[in-house]
Design a protein that fits this description.
Radius of gyration: 28 Å
CATH architecture of one domain: Sandwich
Shape: globular
Structural class: alpha+beta
Catalytic activity: Hydrolysis of terminal non-reducing alpha-L-rhamnose residues in alpha-L-rhamnosides
Strand content: 25-35%
Pfam families: Bac_rhamnosid, Bac_rhamnosid6H, Bac_rhamnosid_C, Bac_rhamnosid_N, Ig_Rha78A_N
Number of helices: 20
Distance between the termini: 48 Å
Largest sheet: 10 strands, mixed
Keywords: Glycosidase, Hydrolase
EC number: 3.2.1.40
Helix content: 25-40%
CATH superfamily of one domain: Galactose-binding domain-like
CATH class of one domain: Mainly Beta
InterPro entries: 6-hairpin_glycosidase_sf, 6hp_glycosidase-like_sf, Alpha_rhamnosid, Bac_rhamnosid6H, Bac_rhamnosid_C, Bac_rhamnosid_N, Ig-like_fold, Rhamnosid_concanavalin
CATH topology of one domain: Jelly Rolls
Number of strands: 41
Amino acid sequence: MPDQRCRDLRVEYLDQPLGIGVRRPRLSWTAAGVMDACEIEVDRADGEPVWRSGRITSEDGFPAIEYAGAALGSNRAYRWRVRAWLDAAAEPTGWTTAAFETGLLEASDWRAAWIRPEQEPTALERWSLFDWIAGKRPDSPVEQRLRPVRLMRQRFRVRDGLVRARLYATAHGVYTARINGRPVGDQVLAPGFDSYRHRVSVQCYDVTALLADGDNVLGVALADGWWAGRIGVTGSSAQFGAETSATWQLHLDHADGGTELIVSGADVRSAAGPWAYADLFVGEHYDRRRELPGWDAPGFDDGDWKPVTVTEEDTGTLRPFTGEPVRRVLTLPAVTVTGDAEAGWIADFGQVLAGRVRLTLRAAGAGQAVTIEHTEALAADGSWFTNITGINKEQTDVYVTGGPGPETYEPEFTFHGFRYARIRGAVAVDEIQAVVLSSDIEWTGSFQTSDTRLDRLHRNVVWSQRGNFLSVPTDCPQRERAGWTGDIQVFAAAATNNAQVVPFLNRWLANLRADQMPDGRIPIMSPYTPWDAEHAATASGIGGIVAAAGWSDAIALVPWTLYERTGDRRILAGNLDAMLAWIEHQSSPGYDDGDHFGDWLTPSTMEGRPLHEAIGIAPTLTGPVVAPMFRAQTLTVTARAARVLGRTELADDLDRRAAAVRASFDPSRCFDVDLQGMYVLALAFDMLPPPLRTEAAARLAALVEARGGRLDTGFLSVPYLLDVLWDHGHRDLARRVLWQSEMPSWLYEVDRGATTVWESWDAIAPDGTVRPVSLNHYAFGCVDDWLYRRVAGIQPTSPGYRTVTIDPDLSCGVEWVRAHVGTPYGRLSVSWRRTGGAPEIEVNAPPGITVTIRPAAAG
């Protein structure tokens, strides 16, 4: 008899996580049959019972059960197990067991001090958006503006009988930690990017195996990172603070029941290390001759190291890290290496990515400098060309050799967006690899088709998601790396098909809520720095926008998308208050006519004009029209959220307010602007009375036809274009837009060799000329959701895939499709084939999901 026990046990969507910060975590699993009931038991690691659920029944199919036992303790290990009654069976399955651990749940749990190593404050460099557009550069060389990475070292003793050790650590900056010469974990760029004024993530590491009885040493290397380094649109420095600091505490549990606590404090010593500097944007400079062997292990003489300063920084902002950390997720070898030693060797990794280069090389002696430059594209003639320009965007690493013999170097405190690397220096390079960095999210979906171009388009979307889901959802991994709310708002649905993104986006949403302003404004990016606020307060026009229609609405639209794909009500509950506060700001006088980005980057408004002139046209034309449309949509979505949460009166009130906004909307504004995007959004958001809907859809189709079957939708309307055409009877036209190969189109990029999604449809001209824009922006990859829903036909019809319609477009122009997505119940896969005869459709759905198969008719 097959094993019927529950599988894939998760806590807060994670597999046996350490250091969770949720007091009542969600427990979930998948089952071998339809669950009629379940039973959960949770014990402390020592076997003490903490919760016995008894038999639980539910009509929801058990996507997750919230822990309902006694309060969980801080820094505790727990075991839990589950069994289920399947398919109306009289007897339950056997038990399945897993584990999880809590982090430090109370502010009083943090006993350690913030400590600051001796350092010169970061050189303050303040640049405006217009400085960046004008191409201004710092006057002084890099070496004069950047500063060394600091090493910190703490000695401590461990008595015998140690059974469990957990290190909790974080920094204002980025750090790596080592115990007795070995790294404490495999994550990089910890603690990640946060709205540090409000919250700083604390990592938890299992370091039991690294400790020894007697003398031990904890070593921490500390760099500027997002805290003090150059970040954001302008590349300005010290946007959170000018000096770095760190804090940690090591919890030791012994077999006799005793515990010890080792905390950061005045006993820590500090010195400069082998990094002359390390900056996320500029790059890092590492000199192997300056290494200090054994600095992070017992026996090292630190007599000339400096004492640290204990600071008064607030520990009340510390929060247990949630989700998946940034890790090295892939390694790609160089596909080709061309050039010469004098001009530089150019390595092509065949893929635009976020990460860094790892070199294995041989040097004739010590002190030879090797530079590694990075770019996403080469010039049309194959020569070196840096496609991303801007203040403090050098993306260049420098390595100085330590002596004869083979040496391997990989930067530690920076990352870059690139496909090509140019390596210069008088050394012999034995191996060149690209190390791909990303938040280590779980990839749960796939899409394949008989058409290689659609396959490449999907892979491009996945690579842009991988490169920009790095600590926070960013716009691009080379020029800005900012958590733009608009980008993830338009891409969230596509993201959920490819990966389990709830932990990752929940952490970002926590930052977004923390950044919300007292008047309800949701900033256009999060984390939102003090410098962002200062700069916006003194700027005008686009540069002064703090909150904007379609961007700030992410506070409602992203949680609703996650709820639709997971059925997790807690996502809505955690964001409802922020949604309501944003709605109140939207209702304030003058909001609609204020500054907004509008349907940003609408192609026809950009064509034939210099960037500095073109960039403001779409905001001026479309901003006042877009604002009330997104206001109505956010009211509607928030009403739905309130209704799901049982807030019926609130939901009714929000629905009335949404209806009032729609009733007051002047449809002539869409026709006056007469751009595709205005009709798309008006139809998608139900802004038009029925008699005008047909007219608007016809006008939209005419505009698409007038451009030769090409899109002319901007940033906010692109996600809805194909669906609006499809739903209003223009299915063949929607297919033409998808298959369009002339610019602007998705397949134009594919035909020009794109390996990621571009920021601008014309980033590479037909003659091969490369524009100075990002080649790695996931926003227009929102079309990937269409590939899953319409081409593959996977259409969830109730939250969390409880019901699904399989409705593939068998006339879309391909012979076969294979796709799958992850659902709360397990993997749902679809394959279909049409080779001239009757179509064949195969669906494999997990128990608990009701599937309806209804192939779309041609037309």
